[in-house]
Amino acid sequence: MSQRPPAAAVLLLAAAVLVGSCASALKPLDPSSDLGRVDPERVDPAAADRLAAEAEDLFSRRPELTPVERAERLWLESAIASPTSARGIIGAVRTKVWLAHHLEDRARRRIVARSAVETAQWCGRREPNNPACHYWLALALGVQADAHRATAVDGLRHMVRQLRRVIESAPELEQAGPHRILARVLVRAPGWPTGPGDPDAGLEHAKLAVQMFPQYPPNLLALAAAYREVDEIEASRARFQEALEMARQWQQRGDPDAGDWIQEANQGLQRVPAM
Amino acid sequence: MTIQSMRTLKFTLPAVLALQLFGLTGWGSSLPVPSPHHLVACAPGYPGTTQQAQPTMDAFAAMVSAVAGWPQDRLTAEYQQTESGGVERLAEPASTLGLVPLPFFLKHEEQLGFDPIAQVVQRNGSTSEIWSLAAPAGRVSAAGDLEGWELAGIPAYAPAFVRGPVLGAWGRLPDSTRITFSRRVLAALRRASAGEAIAVLLDSSQAAALASLPSAERLEVVATSPPLPAALLVTVGGRVSSDDAARLLDGVLRVHTVDRFAEVLDTLRLVGFEELDSEALQHARDAYRAAAR
Question: Domain containing A226: what range?
Answer without folding.
Answer: 197-275
